[in-house]
Design a protein that fits this description.
Chains A, B, C, D: Its main location: membrane. Chains A, B, C, D: It is a multi-pass membrane protein. Chains A, B, C, D: It comes from Alloalcanivorax gelatiniphagus. 4 copies of one chain form a homotetramer. Chain A has 279 residues and is an all-alpha fold. Helix content of chain A is 68%, strand content 0%. In chain A, helix 8 packs across helix 9. The two termini of chain A are 34 Å apart. At the B-D interface, helix 2, helix 8, helix 9 and helix 11 of B face helix 8, helix 9, helix 10 and helix 11 of D.
Chain lengths: 279, 279, 279, 279
């Protein structure tokens, strides 16, 4: 009995976490399809005309997908060797959060529209399709952003301070009569302006307010250069490091192309580039 | 007869595909002029006041250009050694699609305004004018974008997921009363916001909605740094590779300017840089 | 007596300027909390409904914080060895400006909403939390921006000239009837357009005006590349310089990772990287 | 007589074109002030309330400045050794164009508001103030933009084609009923959208139109990366080339800091960096 249980658990583990076996791949493909279908169903259900005609069907589909994904989540917990670690991982949290809105909608009507959070599950597609290259690119992008997070954080902190000051300045200058009814609302305006979105739902009316707003716009326009510069420089660096990190064991030459197999100077075989880290 | 047919076909090939002969260049120049004239005609015809005065003339011009371009397309197929390959190439498809709307407009009035797709044919101008330098730049730009397409693709995929989530969140927070009448419409709002376009046709009204929108705007403002960084790094890399790829045969020095003809260290003649690939 | 005075002054100096002692850190942490609480209080007070209910409490809090910060400012002046230098430093000016609006509001109602300028004091957080790394990043960002200030300045100067010309051109083309009531207002429109904010509160109505506006938009869209390029290049350079500045004392090899302790070529111990300058 | 004439002409040349003599510098400074005063006068005159009160004064000032600048232009022509070359240079054209609108306003009322074109004359400030460093930065920026003009040109050409196609597509999809009254107007909309300005004066109403518009926005958002990448890469390259171009005459080491006076490896004196070219 114990053996049968273990073998059953083992089989499920292969299906759910495996990406090498045929069953594992098929499961993953079906899962992606189910996720997309489920997001599309929720989206369509929010359109009034479709809701009136197919509401019952879509409601059934929503519950069917939710039950399915709940089962899947429990099986994942069951077959995982370290369930807590899975539960706390990015995908573990996403998997759980992807089923909650339906249950929540029993208490809080409308909560089910948050089911589109399931779209996050689709990110799994990189792992599923075994697109090693794409996976590699995604990892590179991710690690670049991780390495720049401190600089970007410092920058965003400074931007928030600037936004607060511009917001309250405009509140004093323009005042409630011109739509700047409170500092929080003025801060909202400052965000709309500095990010160059510019809805125009609130806009300065007095000449002095327009002058301050002009300053805010030019600030927003100029400082976008900062995060862009940070990310560009980091990516350039990553490129260069990658080229330099392989060395010819014979002539010690660096700067080989990523796909080079022999030293371009002396022809000695090069060590293989390291496989991309991370899952 | 066979010989005359072959020689006729040969002559047309030289005129249509050739860029070295006088006849070939003149044909290309006339073609570009015809394309521009045709696009201008369609554009003007859409202006009500011009349509009323010169409608018949423009209608005639439209058909004239279409018949001309159809003939040209058929001749291209005829004289090409591998007609299918031409038909499936970028320019082949554009050439075909550029004549369809007129015929389509017989069934579907208004389809003829899609004739501006012909503007794409003007891209041929690079080849026509034999602007080797411009062609080279265009190729470089193109190949950079091709090399970054995977990273950009991964990024856009993530952006789409973020847009879906912000869209449905705003649908729940703001609701139909404030213009967010369905999730698809809310997703449209999220795209308008995250790309920092900000029409203002739909904008958040509740304080909580404005807070979520602020988050979306800041996200959009910050992540523009990612594609920009990707392209910048790739272009920097391309620059560097170009400098490094030529090596002095005597002292093995790299890092020569693209227009250098002799090694800047020992004066030995350098190999010529490779000609830009591609047509 | 003199000794007691000196020791008291010394103790306060440690508390206020020190970041190593327990008392100094606790003081700094309380200060940050007080700053944030004070900014939040001002912000909330500007919301009409909150003002009506808790106006008196928030008014009291405002004065309490102001008195507290005034005392702190005076103590800083007192314990500082070179009070003038502190008073003229960035933080000295911010500290003073952070208390003025409350006193000003006695004469000029509404001035107290400018108290959010206090948010600037929060920038002190980097020093307080002893986040050496973050501090380093902030310094790097700062010094990059300082090094690019001339190029950015030249660019902004040119942009201002372009904005003035587009503004007056549109005033002539569109005129007061279409919302372009004066050149200053048209310049405001040009800023809104060239920074790609686009409120839509003023927009061109005539075909010719729309053509000029299109040109302004494309200009704004294209030239954003300039400051971004400036900052990116400067950051890339900073990265590279950092790698090159350490040299192996044995084999004179450069290009070591920032965290490398031994030469990657010959294994000789490397000099330690210089500590980040600045406080 | 001839000598007196020659010496007078010489003296004027020193005053007008010279930047080394005291008189030359003073003339330039006064000129800049006059230019700024003149632009401010034109700007203020366009404000209705100021025009009514000080209209006559400002009108007089406008003519005074115009006569002054006309005289200056003629003197420049007179004292220049090659008058035609000056007349055709950037500043020569600007100097002429800066006086024309006043004379034109006699025939065409309103043309005088174009006098703000004079703002372009202020660009002379770099030369005037002898800010060699600023001048150098401006030259660097200029030469970078000149070197990237072909790539940027190819990019803008492709963007224009994309804009034409999106514009006519929206004309067909949305039609005159939703504000897309003609293809030129739809093209205007496409420019507003792709540059992410987003006035909102025309915006898609139908779901399908919104889908097409979404595509246009995402396109605009993504391709801004291209010119930015071009400029960034070019600036990085310029930085690097600058470091590499000086070589130690003893040990042939490159990669010296711009301000280095001795080789950092062997201590030999380095050749001086070349002075910035251009006037």
């Amino acid at each position: 009995m114990n053996t049968r249980y273990a073998s059953l658990r083992d089989r499920w583990r292969h299906i759910i976490f495996g990406t090498d076996t045929r069953a594992g791949r098929r499961f993953d493909q079906l899962l992606i399809l189910a996720i997309i279908a489920s997001v599309v169903a929720v989206t369509l259900d929010s359109v009034q005309s479709i809701h009136q005609r197919h509401g019952t069907l879509l409601y059934a589909a929503e519950w069917a997908f939710t039950v399915l994904f709940t089962l899947e989540y429990m099986i994942r917990l069951w077959v995982s060797d370290r369930p807590l670690r899975y539960a706390r991982s990015f995908y573990g949290v996403v998997d759980l959060v992807s089923v909650i809105p339906t249950y929540l909608s029993l208490l809080l009507p409308g909560a089910n529209y948050l089911l589109t959070i399931r779209a996050l599950r689709v990110l799994r597609v990189f792992r599923v399709l075994k697109l090693a290259q794409l996976m590699d690119e995604a990892n590179q992008l991710g690690s670049t952003l991780v390495r720049t997070r401190r600089k970007i954080g410092v920058f965003m902190f400074a931007v928030v301070v600037v936004i607060i000051i511009f917001g309250s300045l405009m509140y004093v200058v323009e005042g409630p009569a011109n739509g700047f009814t409170s500092i929080p609302r003025s801060i909202y305006w400052a965000i709309v302006t500095i990010t160059t979105v510019g809805y125009g739902d609130i806009s300065p009316q007095t000449p002095f307010g327009q002058a301050v707003a002009s300053l805010a716009m030019i600030t927003g326009y100029a400082i976008i250069a900062v995060p862009t510069g940070i990310v560009s420089a980091e990516m350039s660096r990553a490129h260069m490091v990658k080229r330099y990190e392989r060395e010819c064991p014979n002539c010690h030459r660096h700067d080989h192309d990523p796909d080079a197999r022999f030293c371009k100077q002396c022809g000695t075989g090069l060590p293989r580039p390291e496989a991309p880290q991370g899952s």
